[in-house]
Amino acid sequence: MLMEKSLVENGFIIDLTGAQNTSQLIYELSSIMEHPQVKGKNICLKLGKLELKQSQLLSIKALIESMDASIAFIDTTAEQTEASAMSLGIQLSTVSQEMSSSMEGINSKEISELAASQIKTEEVIIKTEDGIYDNHGEAKTIEIQADTGIQSGTIATTEGIDDIYDEITTQELTEVIPSEDYNTTDFGSVAAIEGLLPTEETSKYILLDTGNVLPEGIEENSANTEALPTLYINQTLRSGQTVSYEGNILIIGDAHPGSEIIAGGDITVWGILGGIAHAGNNGNITSKVRALKLNAIQLRIAGLYARRNDTLNVPYVQKSNEFTPEEALIENGKIVIYKKLRRD
Amino acid sequence: MTGRVIVITSGKGGVGKTTTSANIGTALAKSGYKVVLIDTDLGLRNLDLLLGLENRIVYTIVDVIEERCKLKQALVKDKKNPNLQLLAAAQTRDKTAVNAEQLKEICDILKEENDFVLVDCPAGIEQGFQNAVAGASEAIVVTTPEMSAIRDADRIIGLLATKEEITSVKLLLNRVRPNLIKSNEMMSVDDVVGILEIPLIGIIPEDTGIITSTNKGEPIVNDEEAMAGKAYRNVAERILGEEVPFLNLDEPRGIIAKLKSAISKLKVKV
Fold it and tell me: Which residues in B lie closer than 8 A to residue A297 (C-beta atoms)?
């Protein structure tokens, strides 16, 4: 049951919870990684309670990357490993922990045996995909066809997973349209949709607990922002620069981290938005923030303030021609981000 | 309770004031003390970046002074340690937005509820410096073993001596490279202390880990193995009044240590 849950798009989960120490873990991992099917895959590592230092985790990461694969995220119960992963910017998952309780008899020994015995990885993945994510929480049976004599196993979609799946419609990342090529798909959003990671870890923005931040005398309203005048700015905003306008603001250029854009209406950045953007600062809850790349340190719409998730704290975004425009707006009392497909 | 207000200053820029503030603050908070870090570098703030708290800042020190929010609202709690709080500088204003009395007032309020208030001072000796020093009763002067930094530190020590409120001035020598000292290419610790003639509170070795820790927003004291982290933890202990011997920075740490580092390098390459 190596590929127990192939929720990882274009990848799979490797269970190493059976390893007693780091060298055992590396030994087992490397025997799995030798399998040719591993190339180019996203890998989720289940590390159990093994305490790993940053340097050790780094070497594991290097090992995986040397096989042209990448770590999608890791699952661990050890504090030190968690801290190491955070400092290396590796995503953590806790939900898969719940899944493992519904599956028995998996240990790393079996896995390495499996890997060694030339299982048709592809086949297993396809099978498993069929088996998962039926929304009604019914138990599904998956048959794994392999020469190694592994019998069919049963995976029950646990209730917990189902709940998370239902919640997806109301969480911050409501709609993400995956692009055709999985390689360019933001893994976090896929994982969010699949219900694999908890909301906290996958949502791009997390609401700040600031209370009512609207100054006194300003009421929430939903005036039409299209009727407002628009300020055009044809330059890049640098750290420390502020643009403030009662109507809409359109910036042709980037807004670097440390800059601030405050508008009574919408904010549109034709470039990378990296600073703070406050749309509808007079309480207009229909205002939106748009950018070719939405990387704002903080997004503020009317009285709602959201901070960027710590896991996404990269100081600068690499310029690219492949940005998918994004739009942030208020929906059900939350800031929601929509990824728009380019219409070409 | 009345806490201690310590200003971290240097005169010269780029010697590691902000890194020192972030690390000493984190180390003190880890030992269980309540710490507030104040960034007084208005317009060129960095302390929030080093702590990885940039995305949590809603109000700044200027908002407090201009009464757009209460002081409590402007304090940003650290991600890991709730004992550590940050009062951020405003990025979109300059040093003239605050004056010395206002900063003193803020320090006075904060020291009532905290064990330590660490003030990260901007470079220079103008208003930013005067503001930062206003509320402090102790100072840590950061310098590197270079003539220019030492000259500026000397100037700062002279200025601090004219401030009656400041009762203790200590020296923190940053970015020390023992092998350069050995080959007589860098001034030794004794040389620097001999020139500046103030008591030493810490020697921090040059550590490339500082670069990654700055980029990640994770102070190096959280890294148990890094030499610089260890040195900063020792500084925190000395601030608390403990007698900690200075680290032996001599490079060869025995055959076993050398082997270990060689093996760890190998592993990464695999």
Answer: 54-55
ipTM value of the model?
A: 0.78
Distance from CA of A342 to the nearest CA of B (A): 29
Residue A6 lies in a domain: no
Q: Is residue A1 part of a domain?
A: no
Residue A180 and residue A234 in one domain? no
Same domain, A169 and A278: no
Task: Count CB atoms within 10 A of the CB of residue B197.
Answer: 9
Here the CATH number for the domain that contains residue A220 is 2.160.20.70
Contact A237, A255 (CB under 8 A): yes
Per-residue model confidence as pLDDT tens digits over A186-213: 555 555 555 555 544 456 788 887 766 7
What is the average pLDDT score of chain A? 69
* Distance (Å, whole) CA A330 – CA A57: 39
Q: Which residue of chain B comes nearest to A303, CA vs CA?
A: B58
Q: Which residue has the higher pLDDT, B4 or A60?
A: B4
Question: Considering only alpha carbons, which residue of chain A is nearest residue B50?
Answer: A315
Residue A29 lies in a domain: yes
Token pair of A50 as six digits: 């093994």
Cβ atoms within 10 Å, residue B101: 11
The whole-angstrom separation of Cα B79 and Cα A8 is 28
Q: Is A5 within the bounds of a domain?
A: no
Model confidence band, residue B64 (pLDDT cutoffs 50, 70, 90): very high
- Contact of A175 with A339, CB cutoff 8 Å: yes
Contact between A6 and A128 under an 8 Å Cβ cutoff? The reply is yes
Q: How many CB contacts within 8 angstroms connect chain A with chain B? A: 60
Return d(Cα A61, Cα A88) in angstroms, integer: 10
Buried-state track A233-245, b at ≥16 Cβ within 10 A, e below 16: beeebebbbebeb
CATH number at residue B208: 3.40.50.300
**Tens digit of each residue's pLDDT (9 = 90 or more) over B106-159:** 999 999 999 999 999 999 999 999 999 999 999 999 999 999 999 999 999 999
Q: Are B267 and A59 a contacting pair at CB < 8 A?
A: yes
* For residue A151, pLDDT beyond 80: no
Q: A322 Cβ partners below 8 Å, 6+ apart?
A: A184
In terms of Cα–Cα distance, which of A77, A129, A67, A124 is closest to A100? Answer: A77
Range of the domain at A212: 205-339
